[in-house]
Structure formats: structure tokens, C-alpha cells
Design brief:
By secondary structure, the chain is an alpha+beta fold. The protein is built from seven helices and 18 strands. 19% of the residues lie in helices and 34% in strands. The relative contact order is 0.21.
Length: 277
């Protein structure tokens, strides 16, 4: 297992024993995602690399040319929340059907310029009154459809907009500052097991206002299956990220506010921290 960090002073990699190495100036995410064997590509980049102290420079977004997609209704909690928020519009039953169907819900989430860096600012829509973060295990998939790693994703969502009508999903999900990835990209042949915990904490004025936790094992669909469906009749020349759905949804009375700090933790990746602009 290796971890990649993007900073203003360049790319660096952390190897299994905790040492950090500066990656060559020619290294970038596109090269990694376009390689048929990304792990070998990274090991080659590390060959002869200089060991360094962990870089304290400002982090950059972990997306270069990669599209970010997302899966919905993969956890029972998400199914229930989506049905509740859509009850006014009478569309809640759609989510129950998707939860049980063979075909998953997959939707476009963000282009790289809409993705915040670790520690960066996320946004809530000015025309929405009910907004929540969605903490998600996020798969890194190369151009050949191979899952070669993972990170943490925050799939920001305007619940009131989607609840008005399921056809408003793109507006509820896709806007400037609608997603974050990080704090690093884990490159590994092994995906997180079912006991892997995903934790969310939201701070307001420095005090916790919501906390929740789930595990990868609560997900209804296998991770490899989600990637397989995404690549059916679809190509990603520079690879993509796939957020795999959330099992943590704050209560209906909760909405994010400007200044809130969102903290998402998966032990193998670390903690992704972002502030609401």
C-alpha cells in the first residue's frame, strides 16, 4: 500500500513504513490513471526518488483530468432518507425500487475544477435551504476499468432540491464546490474490507453538532460491481473516481451552515477536513 499526496510544492508518496519520497516532476495523476498497471507505474516513479520530510505545503485537489461520478442508494440508510425527502413530490418509491434493482443508480458528480482540496472550502447552494455532506469511500479506477486504489469523498447534497423532484438531481449534486477528495490517494490491490469504518463529524463554532459512523459492510452492492456498471458503454480515457454512496445521513432537522467544519475519517486514508464557505 502506498499513499499519494498533492501539494503546491509537488507530489509526494508515503510508503508502508511511513517514509515519504518526492515524486519526479514529470509525475502526475493522468499518467497514473492512464497506466494499465498503476501500482507498477507508481513504484517506477519511486525508483531513485529522494526521501523527504512530509511536506507541509498547501494541499491541492486529487483530481487532474478525472471525472468524478457517484453511486446512490447503496446503503439502506440512504434509501430511507431519499424516500423521506421525496415524499412531498411523491417520488419516494423510485428509491426503494433502485435499492432492490440489479442496476445501480450512477450519476455524474463533478469535473476537477469543482473539487475542493483537503482543507479547502466547500459550498452550499444559495438557492437551497437543506444541505448535508455525504461521506463516501471513493474508488480510483484507471482508464481500463481497474480499481487500483481509493480515497475519501464528500458528496455534498442539496436535499430540498432533489426532494422537490428526482429530475432535479443534477442541480442538487453538481455545482461549484460540490465535492472534496483526500487527504491522500491510497494505491493498493486490496480494497477496504467490510469492517472498515467511515466516520463523519461536523463542528460548528468548534463544537460537535453531528457525528455518525457506518461500515463498508453495510453497503448493499459489491464495490467491483459498481465499477463494472460505470464502465458499461462508457469510457474514461484518463480514468475516474467513483463515490460509492453514503450510509450516514444527519437528521431532517439538520442543515449545514457557513463556517461549519466537516471531518470524514477512514483509518487507512486519514481524515478529510473541509470548511463550508
Amino acid at each position: 500500500m502506498m499513499k499519494i499526496y498533492a501539494t503546491e510544492s509537488g507530489w509526494c508518496a508515503e510508503v508502508a513504513d511511513g517514509r515519504y519520497y518526492a515524486l519526479p516532476a514529470a509525475f502526475d495523476l493522468d499518467r497514473l490513471f492512464m497506466d494499465p498497471a498503476p501500482g507498477d507505474c507508481l513504484r517506477s516513479a519511486l525508483s531513485g526518488a529522494a526521501q523527504i520530510e512530509r511536506r507541509a505545503a498547501a494541499p491541492l485537489p486529487l483530481a487532474q483530468s478525472q471525472e468524478i461520478w457517484a453511486a446512490g442508494v447503496t446503503y439502506y440508510r440512504s434509501r430511507t432518507a431519499r424516500m423521506e425527502e421525496s415524499s412531498v413530490a411523491g417520488g419516494g418509491s423510485f428509491y426503494d425500487l433502485v435499492y432492490e434493482a440489479e442496476r445501480p443508480e450512477l450519476f455524474f458528480k463533478a469535473t476537477p475544477h469543482r473539487v475542493a482540496a483537503p482543507g479547502g472550502l466547500l459550498r452550499i447552494r444559495a438557492d437551497s435551504r437543506w444541505n448535508v455532506p455525504e461521506p463516501e469511500l471513493t474508488l480510483a479506477i484507471n482508464a481500463f476499468g481497474k480499481i487500483f486504489g481509493y480515497t475519501i469523498g464528500n458528496d455534498m447534497s442539496s436535499r430540498d432540491i432533489e426532494g422537490q423532484n428526482p429530475l432535479y438531481l443534477p442541480q442538487a449534486k453538481v455545482y461549484d464546490g460540490c465535492a472534496a477528495l483526500g487527504p491522500c490517494l491510497v494505491v493498493s490491490d486490496e480494497l477496504p474490507g467490510p469492517q472498515t469504518a467511515i466516520a463523519l463529524e461536523i463542528l460548528r463554532d468548534g463544537r460537535p453538532v453531528f457525528a455518525g459512523e457506518t461500515t463498508v459492510g453495510q453497503m448493499k452492492r459489491p464495490l467491483a460491481s459498481l465499477a463494472d456498471w460505470l464502465f458499461r458503454e462508457n469510457s474514461f480515457p484518463r480514468g475516474c473516481y467513483l463515490m460509492t454512496g453514503t450510509g450516514i445521513v444527519p437528521p431532517d432537522s439538520f442543515t449545514l451552515r457557513s463556517g461549519d467544519e466537516v471531518r470524514i475519517t477512514i483509518a487507512a486514508v486519514g481524515t478529510l477536513v473541509n470548511t463550508i464557505a
